[in-house]
Design brief:
34% of the residues lie in helices and 23% in strands. The chain is α+β, with helices and mostly antiparallel strands and 209 residues long. A hairpin with a 6-residue loop joins strand 6 (142-144) and strand 7 (151-153). Helix 2 crosses helix 5. The longest helix has 23 residues, at 87-109.
Length: 209
């Protein structure tokens, strides 16, 4: 839970914190959280993520990762987690990236005369082009075309369909984008101002499930 690469020596004012809670008859119970810089020069959409030990292996980590990319799409800017990633963090992200990309490729493969570009995948997922290319290269799905400098995306429909089915069975929890109540933070110099909201509205980035 405590990583040398994520040690904070100053204050937490530059960060936003998104808290994941379980709800039952006794109220809300914290299950985990992730933090995000209010203004990230590198375009990071997640700084640190933590799931409490009793709540691990329940799909909450990927749920928070999915939420971070939902906010990236709302902001209209592709995002990526803060580097360097821990070994476990890299495994978790590669699994999430693969599922997100494969779901789009599976949808495209089921249509006739339909093509998809890496830029289009980026817009649909909120992922950066670099993370998409890295995932596709790791899976051997980008191949150089003979005689030219371009690469072709080679898709095995049965392979990605099998992966997506298993991923959905293993992690059925998903974010419902229609439940998001979100407002951007307005920045002016070093100040960060939150847009006003009514009493019946949720604060920026909160999700009502």
């Amino acid at each position: 839970m405590f990583l040398d690469t994520k040690t904070l020596y100053y204050d937490v004012e530059p960060f936003l914190f998104y808290i994941l809670c379980e709800y039952d008859s006794t109220g809300y119970h914290v299950a985990g959280y992730y933090s995000k810089e209010k203004r990230s020069v590198q375009g990071y959409n997640l700084s640190c993520i933590m799931i409490l030990p009793p709540k691990q292996r329940e799909g909450y980590g990927k749920l928070l990762i999915e939420f971070s990319y939902l906010l990236s799409k709302k902001e209209g800017m592709p995002g990526s987690p803060e580097k360097p990633l821990s070994d476990f963090g890299l495994l978790s992200y590669r699994s999430y990236w693969r599922r997100a990309i494969y779901e789009i490729l599976l949808n495209v493969s089921q249509k006739t005369n339909c093509a998809v570009s890496i830029d289009a995948i980026s817009k649909k997922t909120g992922m950066t082009v670099d993370d998409i290319i890295s995932t596709l290269q790791t899976d051997g799905m980008l191949q150089r075309q003979p005689g030219v400098s371009n690469y072709a995306l080679v898709v095995d429909a049965k392979r990605i369909e099998g992966y997506v089915e298993k991923a959905r069975e293993k992690n059925p929890r998903r974010i419902d984008p229609s439940k998001l109540r979100w407002a951007p933070f307005l920045t002016k110099g070093a100040a960060v101002l939150e847009q006003p909201k009514g009493d019946d509205e949720l604060s920026a980035g909160e999700l009502s499930v």
